[in-house]
Amino acid sequence: MGCASSQTISSVTGGGLTWTLRSRANSRPGTAEIWQAVASAAVSNVTVTATLSNGSQVGAITVVSFTGASTGVNGAAATAGAASGAPTATVTTTRANSWVFAVGDDYDNAIARTVGANQTLVDQYLASVGDTYWVQRQNATTPNSGTSVIMNDTAPTSDQWNVALIEIPAS
Hints:
Layout: E1 9-13, E2 19-25, E3 32-37, E4 49-52, E5 77-82, E6 88-92, E7 99-106, E8 114-115, E9 119-126, E10 132-138, E11 148-155, E12 161-168
Antiparallel strand pairs: 1-4, 2-3, 5-12, 6-11, 7-10, 7-12, 8-11, 9-10
């Protein structure tokens, strides 16, 4: 794979929706990105396509839909990355009853994540090229606005990583 800045998505399309980049973490090799689209009504049988900025890299895409989320307000977003240590990032909620999701990449090894307390691993791809891509979320919404929410993994701790997270505000 190339340098960190070249490993990005230039666009996401699908479902007749307008997709926007909400959070991108790529201070280390690899990239973790979160894109968002808002639908005014339920959609089904949708194909979603992510287009690379250049080149070809291995990656993963997970599409998640929400009901009861604000369609007019974006929540907070944050990113983090490090050469080693347990992946961790913090976002402060802007609305009561928000839900926080995080995506990450481990450029060094295809090794399973152990997520932190009160979090669930939504999806994980241990790529044959030796990378890991994952999605995790809080187990429950955050009751109060202004709450610092830490999204973290407790293992592995020896690899470089990027993490992007966003708050999904309640309507």
